[in-house]
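for ur thesis appendix - Integral membrane bound transporter domain-containing protein. copy paste whatever u need, i formatted it the way the template wanted (i think)
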Amino acid sequence: MRLRGGARFAVASVIAALLSFWTIAYFARHQPLVVQLCISGVIIALSIVRSDERQAGAAGGAPLPTWVSWVARFVLIPLVALLGSAIGRVVHAHAALGFALIAVPLVAAIWVRRFGPVWARLGSLWSFPFVASLVTPAAALAAGAGVWWGALAAVIAVAWGSVLGWLAGSAAAAGRLGEAEWRPRDASQGSPAAATPPTATGERKLAASSRMAVHLALSFAAAILLGWWLLPDHLGWFVLTAFVVNSGNRGRGDVVYKGIQRLVGAAAGTVVATLLGTAFAPGDSSALVALFVILGLGAVLRTISYAWWAAAMTGGLALLYDFLGQGGTDVLGQRLLAILLGGLIAIAASCFVAPVRSIDVVRRRTADLLGLGREALTGDRGAPEYARLAPQLHEATARIEQLAPPFHALRMVTLGRVGPARRTADLIDRAGALGAGLESFVTRHSRERGAQLGAELRAVREVLVALRRD
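the 3d part is after this line
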């Protein structure tokens, strides 16, 4: 079900990327920086469709009305793209300084989540052009000044991405009629509600979004310094990997688990694409065809594991370097070293500096679900707000299930011998089943079923209380 639901948006994202690429290439065919513009447009189009995919899977609804979101896209992203184009030229001239300038708005996009879902949405929008600048190879930034072309490329990418994202969202909504709703469980960068862990209680006073921003800032700083010192010609691989590994984490355990996935995926994708790139001469357009094929496969398989998307992105970037004449097997070892060190930097920042304990996130989200469950079991079924509990329970259950993979993996690897990990994984499983039952109960009431769910709710609460000792 996840693969089928994700395929709609995967196909839409690849079509949007292709249409953006060829439209920009046509209008900017006489410009010396056409490759830079096409790359930027592809990344923005992919990001737009991915953003619509997250909104389609958010049961609580989008933080902004659709028309407001579209206006914000067409106004904010092209304006920011102007700045991104200018910073891209700095990356070519002074790589360390350029990447540091890119890091500032990306960190700010995480920090503003503390002000609510609307700011989180706006931060996500303004980050797209800077992510594009982060991915674009320095060789593609070398020619031409025309920063205004960056705004035009952004408008084209936003238009194609918005149209294809809307079509995929409409198809997904129609497909959910008569079947269980698909819930995306990836989230390299989840919805604002899902991606930002709640602030821990007690002695931890720093908001979770602020801690995530600190983690990302430290990751960028360390990656830039270490890359500039060790492998200045491959600095972009350090910085990009640090960003990919650290984005969208939901706690210390989550970032380690997904960090390992992303490292493995990125390394595998780089190896395969670098070896594949030897079959193409520099400037051979067949390499671009292979790039889009890899991106398409990664977009489809991302719903299963983010490792596939990490492999596709880094593999596509490796092919792009080969297309620009900067590839070959002789640089493979250096790329892999940069990926490994960049990923380890991101994991270390999230684990040792103001860490967000994954077990605390599980406890908080489970407590939120139990609160909604009490309302579902004891609330007035005739009240207008009672019907809204079903999507809220759906969202709360999905937020808990997002935390399951690292605990399930740890429970399996340790054979259940690590008590806190086993009990937390068991709690997630019981809470997920309870949430699904409560969601069904809201729409199909049954006295007997209500008694069963009430007993299970009390049992989950007891497990949650016991977990606080861990």
